[in-house]
Design a protein that fits this description.
The chain is mainly beta. 9% of the residues lie in helices and 41% in strands. It is built from 9 helices and 39 strands. The two termini are 68 Å apart.
Length: 720
């Protein structure tokens, strides 16, 4: 081994959270300048220039011949070294990568400064400047690697220690676990600004063609990188140059170009529709040559498909028709009849025959209309029994069942008696109780949701403006916009088969501003301000229909009772870092502030009703109601009164206004003791303010007196 470097990383991380913010979007050049004998050359002038933008940065070697050029935007540079009594040396085509220290050494030859020696060669392939472990994905790789939906965050899984956990772990974090840590422990940065919400995961996904480089920082991070326990994903966007350049594209995925699955063909099942079009362009160039540049990109995404067909159980057409006809004949204002009429199932099915009366064990009984929460076969007598304990239907509920099945006045009197053992005779024109009221079918409905979120329906935009005022002052501003719409939403399988939907609208704008000022060749300061918004609205297509579920698993009605709801998160970040080079010490001192503002509404005005089966539904007799404002339909006695002994009106909605502030301060010293030994010394302090509800809506639950836990909860005090 020609070179051996020992790296000591000392990090004092006093707190961990789910965020990351630091100055990592630029690269750095460092190296040593020596004479032909290998002796260090002090006070040599080092110039780093970018031919594309005419950006020039300067440094001077110290007594050990070492130089450092900090905060170098990603790109290809020419490095020139001049020293009295030596020929000028230039090395063109040296790449500065995102968040990476590129080591480039120079060996000077004796001669006149007017003589120029040109050398070629990239920076050292092995990182000998710090101890962190990272993977950098270049723009060439980003442009040429196949990506489903062209989501650059899929490249996280190229890193060592990164594992795809899709279908295994369901946290926020692009289905990627790094180094065995949880998904939402990873941090995400765009141009050095936090791109992560309080619940984890990426907020804004930049357009692939705007990404200059992608870096994943894995282990042994320096103190400046903030407080993500997992990896730090660092993405940098492209900037304009003096040359005009642009691109255009359209990517198409269409089932017309696909072959069908073998087993679909075997079962004579048609191909599932899938239509995805992604189109856009980029344009970059100078506004003022050598000074002011822009890079613009716009992209549209159009996606529609069908959800994967799933087997479901639904009411039969005969049962649905009987309920509707009975309601029309008796005018009993049946809710079930109205919903059956307005929201029928879409696909035909195969009948599932149910027995006319229970003759088998409870575990195998298929008799419809029973109370599954009663304990013995005797209690499964029949659905129409009015005796207390056999369902507890009210007179009105019983009349709705009578109108469907048909019961004579004599039978009605028998059913209200104490024995309740006879089965009423059927009346002409009513449904046969031994006929099928259920059938198996397949749920089919449209979708605009795809795994990983790579395929979606929406519009994206990005604009970056860079201003190099002079050698000592550089600015940039970057804005990303992403709007997604989904006319179906994350639909429950069975209810969406009836045409229900939960449309969503999501906005994910981000912006950042950076100012880099060079005080001297050894002191540099960078100030950064960032903003990220996570704004999601979940609504319902049929807001007047409550959420209705069935204990026997038949197809449900309505959307999730927690919708509509809105979640809006505003993330403000402020950071400042001072870089100081002193002798063989390369020091960084900085502070980070992050302000989180979350406003949300969890609307529970729409209740949930639960029925044993379609017979109980036809009687408008739920056994349980949750949330919403209690209309009195399920006040005791209920079919299962122990679940809801004393129903009370619930809150109609739930607004929250959460706030918190995060602060971090750090000191990092990369001390180059010799060519073979560098110490990476750092410490960091983080303070995380406890989240508080601005309007005082948060509650504190205090268990009350009682002989058991249920009584203590019932007597609990919940002060506001």
């Amino acid at each position: 081994m020609k070179r051996l470097q020992f790296c000591l990383a000392v990090f004092a991380v006093l707190a961990l959270s789910f965020s990351a913010f630091a100055q990592v979007q630029n690269g750095q050049f460092s190296g040593t300048v020596t004479d032909p004998t290998g002796a260090a050359i002090a006070n040599a002038k080092v110039e780093v220039s970018n031919p594309a933008t005419e950006l020039n940065l300067f440094a001077t070697t110290n007594s050990s011949g070492n130089y450092t050029v900090k905060e170098v935007p990603a790109g290809v540079y020419k490095i020139t070294v001049e020293a009295s009594g030596f020929k000028t040396v230039t090395n063109a085509g040296v790449t500065a990568n995102v968040g990476t220290i590129s080591h480039v050494d120079f060996k000077m030859q004796i001669g006149k400064a007017s003589e120029v020696v040109e050398v070629t060669g990239e920076a050292a392939a092995v990182n000998t400047e710090d101890s962190r472990i990272s993977t950098t994905v270049s723009s060439a790789q980003i442009n040429n690697l196949p990506l489903n939906g062209r989501n650059v965050f899929d490249l996280m899984q190229m890193d060592t220690g990164a594992v795809n956990v899709m279908g295994v772990d369901f946290e926020q974090g692009h289905f990627t676990v790094v180094n065995g840590l949880r998904e939402d422990f990873s941090g995400y940065l765009v141009n050095g600004v936090s791109n992560k919400g309080l619940s984890g995961a990426v907020v804004n996904t930049p357009i692939q063609d705007t990404v200059e480089e992608f870096q994943q920082l894995g282990l042994n991070l320096s103190a400046q990188y903030g407080s993500s326990a997992g990896s730090v994903v660092n993405l940098v966007t492209k900037a304009g140059t003096n040359a005009w350049h642009g691109s255009g594209w359209e990517y198409i995925r269409n089932n017309a170009l696909d072959a069908n699955y073998f087993f679909n063909n075997q079962a004579s099942v048609a191909k599932a529709p899938l239509h995805f079009n992604q189109f856009g362009f980029t344009l970059g160039g100078p506004i003022v040559k050598d000074k002011l540049f822009f890079f613009l990109s716009l992209q549209g995404d159009r996606f529609s498909s069908d959800a994967v067909p799933t087997t479901i159980t639904q009411e039969s057409q005969a049962w649905r028709t009987a309920v509707i006809n009975a309601n029309n004949a008796s005018a009993l204002n049946s809710t079930a009849a109205t919903l059956y009429s307005d929201f029928p199932t879409t696909n035909k099915g195969n009948p599932v025959f149910l027995s006319d009366s229970p003759t088998t064990a409870v575990s195998t009984d298929t008799y419809f209309g029973f109370d599954p929460f009663k304990g013995t076969v005797a209690n499964y007598s029949n659905a129409l029994c009015l005796q207390n304990g056999f369902g507890g239907y009210t007179t009105l509920q019983h009349q709705k069942l009578v109108s469907i099945f048909g019961v004579t006045p004599t039978d009605l009197a028998n059913l209200a008696g104490t024995t309740c053992t006879s089965v009423p005779a059927l009346q002409p024109g009513t449904i046969d109780r031994s006929a099928s009221i259920q059938e198996t079918s397949v749920s089919t409905f449209g979708t605009q949701t795809q795994s990983l979120g790579n395929l979606f329906n929406g519009n994206e935009g990005s604009l970056r403006i860079d201003y190099n005022r002079n050698t000592n002052n550089r600015f940039y501003i970057n804005v990303n916009y992403l709007r997604e719409t989904d006319s179906f939403g994350a639909c429950p399988t069975s209810s969406c088969a009836r045409g229900f939907a939960q449309p969503t609208r999501s906005l994910f704008p981000t912006g950042s501003l950076s100012f880099v000022h060079t005080f001297s060749p050894t002191i540099l300061n960078e100030l950064r301000v960032g903003y990220t918004q996570n704004n999601v609205i979940d609504s319902v297509k049929a807001s007047g229909v409550p959420s209705i579920g069935f204990a026997d698993g038949t197809a449900a009605f309505g959307s999730y009772n927690g919708y509509p709801q809105q979640f809006k998160e505003n993330i403000y970040t402020y950071s400042d870092m001072v870089s100081i080079s002193h002798g063989n010490h390369n020091m960084k001192v900085g502070v980070d502030f992050r302000r989180n503002i979350e406003n949300s509404e969890f609307n529970i005005a729409r209740p949930s009703y639960y029925f044993y089966d379609q017979v109980g539904f036809a009687a408008d007799a739920p056994y349980l109601q949750v949330n919403g404002v209690d209309p009195g339909i399920c006040k005791a006695p209920c079919p299962v009164s122990s679940y809801n002994p004393d129903p009370q009106a619930q809150l109609s909605d739930n607004f929250r206004h959460w706030r918190n502030l995060e602060f971090g301060g750090y000191f990092q010293d990369d001390w180059k003791i010799s060519k073979r030994l560098t110490l990476n010394l750092g410490m960091r302090y983080d303070l995380y303010q406890r989240h508080h509800e601005e309007a005082g809506y948060a509650t504190t639950f205090i268990v009350g007196p009682g002989s058991n836990l249920l009584g203590q909860i019932k007597n609990a005090n919940v002060p506001y």
